[in-house]
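Run log // design_07
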């Protein structure tokens, strides 16, 4: 198939590009000017998707069967979230439809079930737009990525304690590897069951808590666990302080949103939300793939893998 891929320079986008290529698809990547791809064998078109019409010329002589979008805000700041997660995705959808695409596969996030943060509201607004677009759609809502749970490996290797919020048992998730998620995303192109449906997806179970992560990390290092419990009140204090200062400065408003993001992930599980029961349901959270976070930790410790934390370093 001729696939238009957005977000190909990001974590999941790179893995999706690898999977598309390995399955013989013809891939054209919409990238920002100056962004470079890790892989060869991919065609690129430079464009500013936050502006309308930036792909029109490039797609004129090129039919597109389907679009896969792994594009997302890098900073998480409210203005960038709406510009990318809503406006750029909408422009991509319009351009792809004009080029003949009949199917849009969107990598969203499981946390949009309970939207609080600007990027979650922007994601939800675009999800709604996509569902009403007349195109076929597959909205993949993954749980936590390995990179988002690996930020403490280096500090623990450096002799520091593992930090958990509260008792370290308040949240849980079924992490999914980049490779497994990419296989799931690409399977949406050919699996009729995955059309016009919301697809929450985790990696292999069971669900794990921050305390489980700490225990496993120290076990792999052959060290007794050293865990520091950080009171949740600290996050509330940061949110309150930055929100107050945010009345006077955009920089502080962005910091407030970043603190709210930290608090969200410290208090909400990345599992399927059961609205009737009013709680997260680990058993009902679908699982896919074979890669485990524990294998990833072992590879990080052995120096066989690296984590590009990017904006997720705080987690
Ligand atoms: N981290 C997690 O644990 C987690 C869990 C569940 C779901 N998710 C979701 O999964 C999706 C993919 O995440 P990821 O970690 O792979 O993202 P990422 O590594 O941050 O990559 C974001 C991609 O979007 C592109 N992008 C950003 N701003 C753009 C703009 N203005 N115009 C065009 N392209 C732009 C980036 O291009 P540049 O290289 O040019 O910046 C990059 O290719 C996101 O929707 C995220 O919310 C994440």
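design_07 sequence
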């Amino acid at each position: 198939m001729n696939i238009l891929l957005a977000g190909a320079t990001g974590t999941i986008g790179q893995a999706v590009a690898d999977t598309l290529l390995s399955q013989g698809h013809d891939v054209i990547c919409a990238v920002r000017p100056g962004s470079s791809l890790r892989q060869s064998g991919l065609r690129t078109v430079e464009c500013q998707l936050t502006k309308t019409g930036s792909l029109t010329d490039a797609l004129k002589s090129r039919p597109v069967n389907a679009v896969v979008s792994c594009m997302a805000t890098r900073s998480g700041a409210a203005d960038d979230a709406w510009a990318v997660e809503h406006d750029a995705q909408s422009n991509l959808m319009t351009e792809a439809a004009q080029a003949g695409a009949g199917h849009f596969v969107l990598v969203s996030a499981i946390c949009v079930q309970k939207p609080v943060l600007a990027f979650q509201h922007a994601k939800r607004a675009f999800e709604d737009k996509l569902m009403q677009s007349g195109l076929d759609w597959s909205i993949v809502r993954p749980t936590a990525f390995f990179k988002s749970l690996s930020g403490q490996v280096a500090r623990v290797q450096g002799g520091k304690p593992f930090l958990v919020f509260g008792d370290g048992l308040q949240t849980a998730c079924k992490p999914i590897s980049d490779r497994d998620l990419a296989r799931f995303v690409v399977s949406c192109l050919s699996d009729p069951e995955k059309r016009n449906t919301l697809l929450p997806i985790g990696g292999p179970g069971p669900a794990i808590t921050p305390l489980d992560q700490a225990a496993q990390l120290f076990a792999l290092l052959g060290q007794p666990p050293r865990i520091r419990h950080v009171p949740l009140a600290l996050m509330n204090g940061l949110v309150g302080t930055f929100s107050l200062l945010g009345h006077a400065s955009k920089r502080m408003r962005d910091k407030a949103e970043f603190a709210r993001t930290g608090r969200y992930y410290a208090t909400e599980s990345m599992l399927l939300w059961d609205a009737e029961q009013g709680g997260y349901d680990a058993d009902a959270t679908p699982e896919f793939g074979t890669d485990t976070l524990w294998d990833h930790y072992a590879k990080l410790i052995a120096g066989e893998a690296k984590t590009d934390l990017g904006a997720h370093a705080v987690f």
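The longest strand covers residues 136-142.
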